Structure formats: C-alpha cells, structure tokens
Amino acid sequence: MADVQIEVENATQNTMTFYAPKEWHGKHKNPFPSSIESGTKVPFSHTPDVTDGSVAAVVYHGKIGTEVYDHMFMWSSLTSSKDANKVWAMTRKRGFFTDAQLQSILDNLKDNSHTDDSSVCQSFITIVNDTSNKTTKVEAKFTSHQSQSNTCP
User: Fold this and answer.
1) Which of 111-144 are b and which e, b meaning 16 or more Cβ less than 10 Å from the residue's Cβ?
2) In whole angstroms, what is the distance from residue 45 CA to residue 40 CA?
3) What is the 3-state secondary structure (H, E, C) of the chain?
4) Is the N or C terminus of the chain more exposed, i.e. has fewer CB atoms within 10 Å?
5) Could you tell me which residues come within 8 angstroms of residue 66 by beta carbon, excluding any fewer than 6 positions away?
6) Is the Cα dihedral 110, 115, 118, 122 positive or negative?
7) What pLDDT digit, counting tens, does each position of 95-153 carry?
8) Could you read off the pLDDT of 48-71 as tens digits, one per residue?
C-alpha cells in the first residue's frame, strides 16, 4: 500500500498552527506542517502500516473572529476492507478534540466525504483512490465566514 497523500487548504483568513496528531495505524512520513497560512494548501504524506493501513487525525488551532478554534481532519484507509476509505473534518471550540472524542468520531466514520457547516465556518474533506498511480488522496478544506455575532459549534 502506497503512502496516503494529504492536502490541507486554509481558507479561514487566519494562520492555522499545528496542535496535535493522533495516529492509530501508520506514521507521518515527515513532520506535520507547523503552520498553514491563510490562502494556502500544504501537502504531506502518511505511511500506512503494512497490515492495517493508515488511520489518523490531525488538529490545528486557528482564530475565527476573536475566538480560537480547533480544525480537525481524520482519515481511515484500511488495507483489508471493501469500504476502506472514510474521512471526517470539523471545526469546534478549542479543546473539543480529546482522545476520547477522537476515538468516538473514528468509531462512527462511514463516508468517503464529509461537510461540517455552520453559519460562520465550514470544513470539507474527501478521500479517493487514484488507480492510475495506486495512491490514496485526502483533501481537506477549512473556511470561515468572519462574523462576530455567531460562532462555530
């Protein structure tokens, strides 16, 4: 199984800074990007376990208005399942993504794309197999609608 290729886009109007990874299966190939500037996309790779595949989550901090939020994206690309590729992304107030919360989200993964939307922020993620070069690609995007009267959940 080839590395999972991940691309994260920051469209939040503020810099997102790396907070924490959670890796169940596989290992990041290089350090996770320490920050993602607004208006940019950053790529990185995750090397799967030979027997289990690649299952991980990454959390970045970022401001929306005057509040600090956590932007989380998660993927599961298993080596031995028919329904192998699943993803989730969401933005919540800082501190929401505990190990227990991440495990609960992982236990309920079921789709190969997901959109989490509120009046001030949106998270979108998708995962696909690229059969031409035998890779799995994950694309995540975080946006904000700068409003002081509303907050993300």
Assistant:
1) ebebebebebbbbbbbbeeeeeeebbbbbbbbbb
2) 17
3) CCCEEEEEEEECCCCEEEEEEEEEECEECCCCCCEECCCEEEEEEEECECCCEEEEEEEEEEEECCEEEEEEEEEEECCCCCCCEEEEEEEEECCCCCHHHHHHHHHCCCCCEEEEECCCEEEEEEEEEECCCCEEEEEEEEEECCCCCCCCC
4) C
5) 148
6) positive
7) 999 999 999 999 998 888 988 887 668 899 998 887 777 788 899 999 987 644 445 66
8) 998 889 999 999 999 988 889 999
Which token pair is 150? 């509303």
Identity (one letter) of the amino acid at 110?
K
Structure token pair of residue 142: 């975080």
